């Protein structure tokens, strides 16, 4: 009864074979590896901060300032110099990594998460849910972000986590907008219709099928968001509604010292370089991940 | 086809290789050919056989950086193309060799006006002034028989229909009267009726200008209609080359014979010998569609009120019995896909759709989900309908997962069985959709549709994009499965030859309504509605001996299904002209 | 089109209403008491109460908001608590400067960002591409205050090409615009690069090449207009981000815009000004988005305003 | 009329920069760093100070008389003084101005200064429109009756809030009078481009012949201090109104040419830490004394590049009543710890230190934090916008400790009493008040009242003594830990002329516009 059907192997390429895991493929790429190394260094620096230098981040050392009260440039004693209160800059940058990682990764991540969730939901469900969500996004977008952050932060008592949440609350909007646009066009794609005909539920379509396609966008916004959020935290600190002194963060080290960029350039340069390196590292990883996770890019160098 | 003089294009021992994950792979091997002035050379062959690569190699437009010419020479007249740098090659492209691509929808720049896109290549290759270039563009448009050419210049691609777009592409290619025109599947994406027009046009123009044409196609009907000489390719190699009449009459290579055998022909359907008219009427209906309406609201005004409506489906009724194939045919935009989508639950509708005794818009959530199982759909473009980021094994397993088969082992087994059933090997489960050929992808889609053992499968243009041999295999597969599982098909196609081969009954749609419906024999041997007749006549016949002088032409454009609120279209009454052969009065 | 504008206008008004309500509520919740700022340190409690009453700040929230709204309808944004001027007057006098800066900044952003993105996309994978990508990150990561001072120091103090701050001629505009623009340029460069790479893969680009067009024509005539569309949508979003940077840049360059006004008002809890500036910038953002939406069909004729 | 600098040249224009907006030039309202001295040049009061000093002198008044009980002041007005609109100023204007400033509708932040005038309460309470204690005797004589003897009254008559405004102009412009100021001062407003520029031009009819020297002063608004300094270095401006930014201080002082153009002077300022005496553990005097001993003031001053002198009492050294003999609490960590232990906190405690968020205040707060940590007090810093710190300070349970820098006390007038009333007296220890240590000592309040009733100028020294004693007593209770008295460093362009003390004038900040001149005019 079952007549054999000619196996269609005309274009049969690529015999199935065990595929290297994402991780292995990631470390195989030079640039991605560099990114991973930088992130690892930052994370290790943050965790091991208390043991890495012989200084306390808040110790305003007597010999950390000149007699006139000027900070000291990098030297054998203070590798990256000292700040305006005579504290060791390297130690502060290492400790600041904790704050900045929380802001740049957690806050930014939450923002990305909310933005993606809202954007995806609104883009997929037209009708009143989507309409309401997008109107709300428009509303939030119409707020000058900084002002909103200031008000929110002033209403709550500032603390690192509050600041992180405030930043998240402010920063999701743009992501939502962009993701929304992309989702609405993805939702029109035929394979989504195909999913619906097999009875896939909305969450399944959203998270298993649409989300992976948004990855490149999410990665771009996520990596760009790192520096933006770290600097936003600094702005908030500067306004007195960020993390409170003497807690160090890369952003507030820069902000505290920015007027000294000529007199004591190291105070701006080193934390700035740290932010840049972290953002770049994530970008390198993100770029590589984007290629690796995109099966259509397989085989590309 | 008297003796043609000097060769204009010669290819000698061309090899094109593509870099892949495991090193270089040759996609065109050792290809040689000669094209003479005024000649039409058809390159046919299965999907992935390197036809497009050959064309792109001539144009020096191989996808960078993956593909490159690894050996061989291409001469245009006396010029060696492979040795030219980009600047000099640029002067040849468009001017001496022009190319028309497969996809008229994406090959025109959406943001530039037709006029701009036409004149810019004229300006790039001649010293004509802007006004003169414009004149030349208008002439070119007139030559491809586009009405109101002058005002068209200001239009944008999306404002034109697919056929018109392809004509614009041709006008663009011909404006500079190139020596060689390469047309890569210029009609595959078009309706039969439009295809006829475009082919006719190509032939006219070629006769007028004496252009040499390389026509790439997998439609043997087109080959028979157009070609002087034919090249058959497979796996990057030429398997046979010769005069058209010879190839059709005395195919030498085994593959050529296979290919010709696979071509569906009206009236002599290879696939279906026995007519099933005689079979006893089947008992219960699998699906029953009554007075289906689908309308899309177009909003406008300050408060976003509905001002106009697209009457995509207007009162369609039909039913399908188990083990039966109902074909739905009609021109682009007549509402076929929308009907299918309504059945698949993808668009809101009014009217009744009952599948397996359960109403599709029934109340319960669970019930609706259960009906979902019974109706599955295979889409036109297998690539577009598979999530490119998932492995095909997971894709086929997904319906099982959704409908409650949770054991991983069981799923794997069933997927492997399905793969086996549709002629794929189970180790291919690990691959991604883009790693398959078109035919294989469509098999994946079929496996997916079969996973839930549905009662009804909707195949919306499911084989249109496939080359004939693959198409034949997929059609065979579908028939096999019908025999085995007793599924019913709603088969949507604009290819009358295919329809003739697979269907039990046929419904012809026009502007959202059915104008004729009956058994296959009723409709094909006794078409009553003029629209049906024109559709059948438009099909090219894969026999060079029966080449037509002119194709039947339809009206320029199909009237619009969009209407203002309150102006519902006139409903056509169907009358039975005997044995359930329903025909609408001509309106 | 008219209908579309009408609909968008209604939406925009609703958004502005929402913004005003939320801002008002947040300011209401603020711990700082504006009345004490007004009354000064020698004031007796009685005076304080007196002033509170005069300003209506002793009323319940809803009443205060309602009063605010009714005044707002007649275009009255109230009078500053600290500056004691009409908020409308303060904003109107500073708005042109901010708008000018915004235009300058957006031009810089687009000019720098788009060309960076374009070059990177065309040279994808090369060292140029990577260098541009790093540069775009520096743009995004550099604190604006430092960038501003650096530009000021090099181009105004050292080279004297431009004036050291101030407002008036186009030469005054260059450095502040550049400072603002560098941040956005990083974003645009990234967006442009990825959208350009996408477009360069499209069939119509291949068609253009098949026509034998010059590289420049292909990139600028065929690819650019297609790639720029997501960027245009970004401009709408950008105006919101812009409002954050304006404070810093205006103060570095002594640019008399609303950023400085807002900053001082926030420092001193000058609620009418904060409300006014918020509404004005919300309006600008809404307008910017509307503009981006209106421009889009001109770039891509497929888009219909609906 | 005091003498005019014989070297002064007439004419010329100068440019001054400020970062923040000039809010208003209405003398009844302006209370900012920027507009304070601008108003002084546009308007005049009955009294004034000799330029560059804290010595009172009659101004619009030609002379004054004080009744023996110290409760009645009679001023004789100068004849022929004209408002900028050309009308002559008379006693009616004086009365009108005072009625206006005390009227709650004016919402003047300075109304409280006039609390000793008879009828003030009625006006402030909205029950009366005019002060019953101010009488126009004749067009050139005005009489003030007070409810109590008030030694500071002459200072009050010199303060901006009491400056004389013409009724017709006020009524003409209404609430916008601050944008269209018309006074009797040395300069008149020529141009005001909001947010950009204010231009003053010489009042040719100024009653004080020979003044002012300058023809024009341009105030450029919205300039970052560091940019202003760059412009000064390029010779584009004459005085950066916000001073030398900390980041540039070293650079300037290291260059002899620039250093020569810096004028240093004292300032009626004290920076201090308040401790909320109603809040445990600061309700214990020993804890407060311990804090006083814990602060390493020299180190804190080093952090601000030595731009201050250590303080040991509320009053700054240049203020009458400053007790030179008072030694204050020494910096003594061991003793501080011992005191803490005595108070029952041998291991210290946790608390909060509020500070304003503009540089250098967060840094100073961190230095203080470190000093406190040395004796076991773990203070977390709340660095907030000014308004929020003020709000916390005015709330009895709001702020345990506040570093005053940036918000507090630069004296309104050079009198010792000015450092007591609202910030140390019981009157200020109310919700919303400015006595952030919530220190209320009824005895001292009585003593303060007593000192202020010593009106006779001849007894000034005696009165200063009384105040010294009061502040010594305050320091015993230690509601504050005084940290430093800021020094003023004004930098000017090379062309600016005039005595140095005009550039660090104790009441005209940053400089005394009326008396300075430029050297490069013909
Ligand atoms: N960009 C690319 N990168 C790598 N391989 C490619 C690329 N484009 C095509 N190929 C491969 O080259 C081979 C020949 O492809 P080509 O497009 O010439 O086939 P074709 O004969 O035109 O088929 P079809 O009828 O489907 O258009 C195929 O195996 C295809 O997978
Ligand atoms: N979502 C929609 N909104 C508005 N109009 C629509 C929508 N979907 C389809 N249409 C319109 O409905 C009509 C029928 O479309 P449908 O896709 O069913 O045609 P078709 O017969 O399948 O054509 P084709 O052969 O091109 O696939 C067309 O005019 C189409 O433009
Ligand atoms: Mg092809
Ligand atoms: Mg269709």
List the helices and strands and how they pair.
The complex is a heterotetramer of chains A (301), B (587), C (306) and D (522).
Chain A: H1 22-28, H2 30-52, H3 89-124, H4 127-142, H5 145-155, H6 160-187, H7 190-197, H8 202-238, H9 250-257, H10 266-293
Helix pairs in contact in A: 2-3, 2-10, 3-4, 3-6, 3-8, 4-6, 5-6, 6-8, 8-9, 8-10, 9-10
Chain B: E1 7-20, E2 23-36, E3 40-45, H1 51-59, E4 67-76, E5 79-80, H2 86-92, E6 97-100, H3 104-107, H4 114-125, H5 130-143, H6 149-152, H7 162-174, E7 180-184, H8 192-209, E8 212-216, H9 220-226, E9 229-234, E10 237-243, H10 244-249, H11 254-262, E11 287-300, E12 305-320, E13 325-329, H12 336-343, E14 350-355, E15 358-359, H13 365-374, E16 375-378, H14 392-402, H15 408-421, H16 438-450, E17 456-460, H17 468-485, E18 488-493, H18 496-502, E19 505-510, E20 513-519, H19 520-525, H20 530-537, E21 562-564, E22 574-576, E23 582-584
Parallel strand pairs in B: 3-8, 3-9, 6-7, 7-8, 13-18, 13-19, 16-17, 17-18
Antiparallel strand pairs in B: 1-2, 1-4, 4-5, 9-10, 11-12, 11-14, 12-21, 14-15, 19-20, 20-23, 22-23
Helix pairs in contact in B: 4-5, 5-7, 7-8, 11-17, 14-15, 14-16, 15-16, 16-17
Chain C: H1 2-29, H2 34-39, H3 45-54, H4 61-73, H5 87-122, H6 127-141, H7 144-158, H8 170-200, H9 203-210, H10 215-227, H11 229-253, H12 258-267, H13 271-299
Bound molecules: adenosine-5'-triphosphate (2 copies) and magnesium ion (MG) (2 copies).
The site of one magnesium ion has 3 residues of chain B, from α1.
Organism (chain B): Mesorhizobium australicum
Protein name (chain B): ABC transporter ATP-binding protein
Keywords (chain B): ATP-binding, Nucleotide-binding
Would you give an account of this structure?
The complex is a heterotetramer of chains A (301), B (587), C (306) and D (522). Chain A has 301 residues and is mostly helical. Chain A is 67% helix and 0% strand. The model of chain A is unreliable at 1-19 (pLDDT under 50). Chain B has 587 residues and is α/β, with parallel strands linked by helices. Chain C is globular. The termini of chain C are close together. Chains in contact: A-B, A-C, A-D, B-C, C-D. Bound molecules: adenosine-5'-triphosphate (2 copies) and magnesium ion (2 copies).
């Amino acid at each position: 009864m079952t007549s054999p059907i000619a196996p269609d192997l005309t274009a049969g390429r690529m015999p199935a074979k065990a595929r290297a895991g994402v991780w292995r493929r990631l470390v195989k790429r030079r640039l991605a590896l560099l990114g991973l190394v930088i992130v690892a260094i930052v994370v290790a620096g943050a965790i091991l901060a208390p043991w890495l230098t012989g200084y306390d981040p808040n110790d305003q050392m007597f010999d950390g300032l000149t007699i006139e009260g000027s900070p000291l440039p990098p030297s054998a004693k203070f590798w990256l110099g000292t700040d305006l209160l005579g504290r060791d800059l390297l130690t502060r940058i290492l400790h600041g990594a904790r704050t900045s990682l929380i802001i740049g990764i957690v806050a930014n991540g939450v923002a990305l998460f909310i933005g993606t969730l809202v954007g995806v939901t609104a883009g997929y469900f037209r009708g009143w849910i989507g309409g309401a969500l997008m109107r709300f996004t428009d509303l939030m977008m119409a707020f000058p972000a900084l002002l909103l952050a200031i008000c929110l932060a002033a209403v709550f008592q500032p603390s690192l986590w509050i600041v992180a949440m405030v930043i998240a609350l402010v920063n999701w909007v743009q992501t939502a907008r962009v993701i929304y646009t992309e989702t609405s066009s993805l939702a029109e794609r035929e394979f989504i219709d195909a999913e619906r005909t097999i009875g896939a539920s909305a969450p399944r379509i959203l998270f298993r099928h649409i989300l992976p396609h948004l990855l490149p966008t999410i990665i771009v916004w996520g990596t760009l968001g790192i520096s933006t959020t770290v600097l936003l935290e600094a702005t908030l600190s500067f306004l007195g509604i960020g993390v409170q002194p003497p807690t160090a963060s890369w952003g507030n080290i820069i902000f505290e010292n920015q007027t000294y960029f000529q007199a004591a350039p190291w105070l701006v340069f080193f934390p700035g370089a740290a932010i840049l390196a972290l953002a770049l590292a994530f970008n390198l990883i993100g770029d590589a991940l984007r290629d690796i996770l995109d099966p259509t890019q397989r085989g590309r160098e | 086809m008297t003796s043609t003089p000097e060769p204009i294009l010669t290819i000698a021992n061309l090899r094109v290789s593509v870099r892949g994950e495991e090193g270089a792979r040759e996609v065109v091997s050792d290809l040689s050919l000669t094209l003479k002035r005024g000649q039409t050379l058809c390159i046919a062959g299965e999907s992935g056989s390197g036809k497009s690569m050959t064309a792109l190699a001539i144009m020096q437009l191989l996808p960078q950086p993956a593909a490159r010419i690894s050996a061989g020479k291409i001469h245009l007249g006396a010029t060696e193309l492979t040795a030219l740098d980009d600047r000099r090659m640029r002067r040849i492209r468009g001017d001496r060799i022009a190319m028309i691509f497969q996809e008229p929808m994406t090959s025109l720049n959406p943001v530039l006006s037709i006029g701009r896109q036409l004149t810019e290549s004229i300006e790039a290759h001649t010293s004509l002034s802007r006004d003169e270039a414009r004149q030349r563009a208008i002439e070119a448009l007139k030559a491809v028989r586009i009405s109101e050419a002058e005002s068209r210049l200001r239009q944008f691609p999306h404002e034109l229909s697919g056929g018109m777009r392809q004509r614009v592409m041709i006008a663009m290619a011909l404006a500079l009267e190139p020596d060689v025109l390469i047309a890569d599947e210029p009609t595959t994406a078009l309706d039969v009726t439009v295809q006829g027009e475009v082919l006719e046009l190509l032939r006219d123009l070629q006769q007028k200008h004496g252009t040499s044409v390389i026509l790439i196609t997998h439609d043997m009907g087109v080959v028979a209609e157009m070609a002087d000489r034919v090249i058959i390719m497979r796996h990057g190699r030429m398997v046979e080359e010769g005069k058209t009449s010879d190839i059709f009459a005395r195919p030498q290579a085994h593959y050529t014979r296979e290919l010709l055998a696979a071509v569906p022909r009206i009236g002599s359907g290879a696939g279906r010998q026995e007519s099933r008219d005689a079979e006893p009427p089947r008992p219960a209906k699998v699906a029953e569609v009554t007075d289906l309406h689908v309308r899309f609201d177009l909003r406008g005004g300050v408060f976003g009120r509905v001002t106009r409506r697209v009457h995509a489906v207007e009162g369609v009724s039909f039913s399908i019995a188990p083990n039966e194939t109902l074909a739905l045919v009609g021109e682009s935009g007549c509402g076929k896909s929308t009907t299918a989508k309504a059945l698949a639950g993808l668009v809101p509708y009014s009217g009744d759709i009952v599948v397996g005794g359960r109403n599709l818009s029934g109340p319960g959530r669970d019930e609706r989900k259960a009906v979902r199982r019974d109706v599955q759909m295979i889409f036109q473009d297998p690539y577009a309908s598979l999530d490119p980021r998932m492995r095909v094994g997971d894709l086929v397993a997904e319906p099982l997962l959704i409908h409650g088969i949770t054991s991983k082992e069981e799923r794997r087994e069933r997927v492997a069985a399905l793969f086996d059933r549709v002629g794929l090997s189970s180790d291919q489960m690990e691959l991604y959709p883009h790693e398959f050929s078109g035919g294989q992808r469509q098999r994946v889609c079929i496996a997916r549709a079969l996973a839930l053992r549905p009662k009804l499968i909707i195949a919306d243009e499911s084989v249109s994009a496939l080359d004939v041999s693959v198409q034949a295999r997929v059609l065979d597969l579908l028939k096999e499965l019908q025999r085995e599982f007793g599924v019913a098909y709603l088969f949507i196609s604009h290819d009358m030859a295919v329809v003739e081969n697979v269907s039990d009954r046929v419904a012809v749609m026009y502007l959202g309504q059915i104008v004729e419906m009956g058994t296959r024999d009723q409709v094909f041997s006794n078409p009553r509605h003029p629209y049906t007749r024109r559709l059948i006549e438009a099909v090219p016949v894969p026999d060079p001996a029966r080449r037509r002088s002119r194709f039947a032409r339809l009206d320029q454009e199909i009237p619009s299904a969009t209407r203002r609120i309150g102006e519902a279209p006139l409903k056509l009454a169907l009358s039975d002209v005997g044995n359930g052969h329903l025909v609408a009065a001509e309106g | 089109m008219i209908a579309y504008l009408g609909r968008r206008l209604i939406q925009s008004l609703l958004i502005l209403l929402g913004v005003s309500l939320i801002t008002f509520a947040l300011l209401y919740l603020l711990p700082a008491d504006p009345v004490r700022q007004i009354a000064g340190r020698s004031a007796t409690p009685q005076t304080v109460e007196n002033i509170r009453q005069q300003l209506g700040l002793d009323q319940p929230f809803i009443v205060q908001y309602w009063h605010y709204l009714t005044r707002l309808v007649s275009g009255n944004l109230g009078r500053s608590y600290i500056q004691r001027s009409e908020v409308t007057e303060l904003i109107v006098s500073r708005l042109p400067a901010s708008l000018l800066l915004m235009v300058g900044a957006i031009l810089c952003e687009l000019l720098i960002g788009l060309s960076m993105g374009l070059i990177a996309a065309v040279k994808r994978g090369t060292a140029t591409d990577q260098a541009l990508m790093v540069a775009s990150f520096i743009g995004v990561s550099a604190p604006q205050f430092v960038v501003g001072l650096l530009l000021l120091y090099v181009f105004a103090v050292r080279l004297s090409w431009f004036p050291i701050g101030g407002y008036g001629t186009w030469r005054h505009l260059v450095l502040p615009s550049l400072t603002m623009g560098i941040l956005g340029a990083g974003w645009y460069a990234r967006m442009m690069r990825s959208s350009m790479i996408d477009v360069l893969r499209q069939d119509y680009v291949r068609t253009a090449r098949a026509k034998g067009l010059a590289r420049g024509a292909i990139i600028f005539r065929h690819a650019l207009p297609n790639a720029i569309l997501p960027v245009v949508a970004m401009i709408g979003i950008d105006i919101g981000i812009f409002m954050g940077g304006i404070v810093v840049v205006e103060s570095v360059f002594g640019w008399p815009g609303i950023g400085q006004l807002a900053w001082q008002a926030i420092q001193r809890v000058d609620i009418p000004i904060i409300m006014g500036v918020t509404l004005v910038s919300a309006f600008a953002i809404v307008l910017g988005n509307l503009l981006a939406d209106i421009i889009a069909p001109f770039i891509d004729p497929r888009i219909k305003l609906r | 009329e005091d003498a005019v600098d014989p070297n002064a040249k007439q004419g010329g224009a100068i440019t001054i920069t400020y970062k923040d907006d000039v809010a208003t030039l209405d003398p009844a309202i302006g209370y900012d760093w920027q507009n304070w001295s601008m108003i002084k040049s546009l308007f005049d009061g009955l009294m004034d100070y000799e330029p560059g000093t804290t010595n009172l002198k009659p101004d619009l008044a030609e002379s004054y008389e004080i009744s023996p009980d110290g409760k009645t002041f009679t001023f004789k007005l100068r004849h022929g003084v004209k408002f900028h609109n050309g009308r002559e100023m008379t006693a009616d204007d004086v009365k009108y101005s005072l009625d206006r400033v005390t009227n709650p509708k004016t919402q003047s932040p300075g109304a409280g200064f006039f609390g000793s005038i008879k009828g003030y309460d009625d006006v402030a309470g909205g029950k009366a429109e005019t002060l019953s204690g101010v009488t126009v005797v004749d067009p050139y004589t005005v009489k003030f009756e007070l409810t109590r003897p008030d030694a500071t009254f002459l200072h009050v008559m010199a303060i901006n809030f009491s400056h004389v405004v013409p009724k017709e102009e006020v009524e003409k412009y209404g609430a916008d009078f601050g944008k269209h100021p018309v006074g009797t001062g040395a300069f008149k407003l020529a141009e005001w481009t909001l947010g950009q520029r204010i231009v003053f031009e010489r009042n040719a009819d100024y009653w004080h012949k020979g003044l002012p020297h300058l023809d024009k002063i341009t105030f450029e608004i919205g300039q970052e201090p560091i940019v202003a300094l760059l412009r000064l270095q390029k010779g584009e401006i004459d005085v950066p109104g916000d001073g030398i930014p900390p980041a540039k201080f070293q650079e300037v002082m290291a260059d002899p040419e620039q250093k020569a153009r810096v004028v240093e002077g004292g300032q009626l300022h004290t920076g201090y830490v308040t401790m909320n005496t109603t809040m445990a553990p600061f309700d214990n005097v020993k804890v407060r004394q311990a804090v006083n001993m814990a602060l390493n003031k020299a180190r804190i001053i080093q952090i601000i590049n030595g731009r201050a002198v250590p303080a040991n009492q509320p009053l700054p050294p240049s203020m009458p009543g400053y007790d030179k003999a008072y030694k204050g609490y020494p910096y003594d960590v061991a003793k501080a710890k011992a005191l803490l232990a005595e108070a029952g906190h041998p291991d210290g405690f946790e608390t909060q230190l509020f500070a304003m968020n503009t540089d250098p205040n967060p840094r100073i707060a961190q230095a203080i934090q470190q000093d406190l940590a040395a004796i076991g007090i773990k203070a977390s810093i709340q660095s907030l916008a000014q308004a929020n710190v003020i709000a916390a300070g005015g709330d009895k349970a709001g702020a345990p400790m506040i570093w005053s820098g940036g918000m507090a006390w630069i004296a309104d007038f050079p009198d010792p009493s000015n450092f007591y009333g609202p910030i140390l007296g019981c009157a200020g220890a109310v919700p919303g008040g400015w006595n952030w240590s919530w220190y209320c000592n009824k005895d001292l309040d009585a003593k303060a009242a007593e000192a202020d009733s010593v009106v006779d100028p001849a007894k000034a020294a005696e009165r200063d003594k009384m105040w010294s004693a009061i502040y010594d007593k305050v320091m015993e209770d230690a509601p504050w830990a005084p940290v430093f008295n800021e020094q003023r460093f004004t930098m000017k362009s090379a062309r600016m002329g005039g005595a140095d003390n005009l550039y660090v004038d104790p009441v005209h900040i940053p400089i005394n516009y009326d008396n300075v001149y430029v050297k490069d005019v013909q």
